[in-house]
Amino acid sequence: MNNIPLLDHDSKTPLHQQAEEQLRKLIRDNHFRVGDTFPKETDLAKRWGISRNTLRQAIANLVKDGLLERKKRTGTTVRKKKITTDLANWLSFSQEMEDKGTPFKDLKHSVEKVKAIKETAERLGVPAGTAVIALERIRSTGKNPMVYFQSFFHPRIGLTVEANFKRPLYELLDEEYHTVPVYSQEEIRAIAATEKIAAWLKVAAGAPVLERKRLVLDAAKKPIEFNICYYRSDWFTYSIEIKRPI
């Protein structure tokens, strides 16, 4: 308990919010690991000098987000969290995950010029065999792959293999290539992992994965990017909020 940072009672940030942020960080940094029993509420509240109700408010949010699990008799335990990505979110994947407090890193990153195969050519509206820039990435929060991305870009953008793809993608397109993504056409389905996909994500061949195909267009609805992603289903879920017309 002594290595758990104290809260700042003089801060304008509410104590329940500070407690929640500290707990998220402790879990993210593996101070508490999956399956670990969480400290007793009385001990943690005493450590931080807060009421149990204040602490419970913070813990309730972590339970809601799937970071903690409460069970009678066994208490509160750290659980494996599925990452939720929002279909209505117009940030790049990197920006979206950063905003969720889940920074990702590249396990594999490659950029090359390739000849567009039939599907890619049709999506981008170019002849088959046209040279396009292809970005390939395997990403994760740890050592094991969680998502595989492959993006193909329309030649008119002017991207080259020397472009700084370490930057958030849509920020790069906007600021350096004056290309602003406006529309996104999405296709999502569950598939059985082929041997190639299984090798990328380190899952068994035939295991369920989420396949997401995205065609990104500019304000004139001209194709910019055709993107194919494969997500490990044991790590990701998709969410979307739909408002009923009044």
Number of strands: 10
Total discrete domains = 2
CATH topology of the largest domain: Chorismate lyase
Low-confidence stretches: 82-87
Helical/strand content category:
alpha+beta
Q: Would you identify the CATH H-level superfamily of the largest domain?
A: Chorismate lyase-like
Fraction of residues in helix = 25-40%
Query: What does the main sheet amount to?
Result: 6 strands, antiparallel
- CATH top level label of the largest domain: Alpha Beta
Order of helices and strands: HHHEEEHEHEEHEHEEE
Task: Please tell me the overall pLDDT.
Answer: 83
Tell me about this structure.
The chain is α+β, with helices and mostly antiparallel strands. It has 2 domains: 15-78, Orthogonal Bundle (Arc Repressor Mutant, subunit A); 83-239, Chorismate lyase-like (Chorismate lyase). The chain has helices at 15-28, 41-48, 52-64, 93-99, 118-124, 169-177, 195-201; strands at 68-71, 75-78, 83-86, 105-115, 131-140, 147-153, 183-192, 208-217, 223-232, 236-239. The strands form 3 sheets. A 6-stranded antiparallel beta sheet has the order 4-5-6-9-8-7. A hairpin with a 6-residue loop joins β5 (131-140) and β6. It is elongated, with a radius of gyration of 22 Å. 21% of the residues are buried. The model is unreliable at 82-87 (pLDDT under 50).
